[in-house]
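3.2 Worked example (two chains)
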Amino acid sequence: MYHQSKGDPLMEFDYEPGRYYHNDADGRLVAEVTFQTLQNGRVLAVDHTFVREDHRGQGIAGQLIETMITHAQNHQAKILPLCTYAKAFFQRKPEYADIVAE
């Protein structure tokens, strides 16, 4: 479940343990969010959000965090925002307070 804002195009992300990411056609990293699984999978600590400079300002970082929210919901987990972007995202969006780990 992705939430689109301001007509931004949705980006599809690949998954591997501890990471959602998107590479361009040349295999270069465009965007990623990384996380650590804590407390036997009950908490996902988001420790890094990255969007390549030429793709910034398109809402991609927000899509990464929303992907993490969906992942957490599907695994009955909470999110512990550690990186600056994740912290700011959850401060701006109190509607997600219930998914944030104390």
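3.2.1 Second chain
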Amino acid sequence: MDKAISTSSYAFSGVTAAGGMLSLNNIALLAGIFFAALTFLLNVWYQRRKARIAEELAQLDREFHEARMASLVENVCEAVNNLSETQNAKD
């Protein structure tokens, strides 16, 4: 028990000494560096997420376009067949 109390006493003394070495300007500097790094990391994460969503939307747009074009080709073929059948019926 005495060893634990002694160890914790030395640890808190070290923390207090380290805190005493920092002035308010140093603390503000460290906080500024920390928040700048945090902002950078969040921005990188957000931009990657935004790019992934844009790629997914582009893929969906390509799939929709292909389906729409296939539908149009099918409708045109159907119309041509109907027209040729009508022409054959008139002859």
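3.3 Remarks
The CA atoms of residues 13 and 19 lie 10 Å apart.
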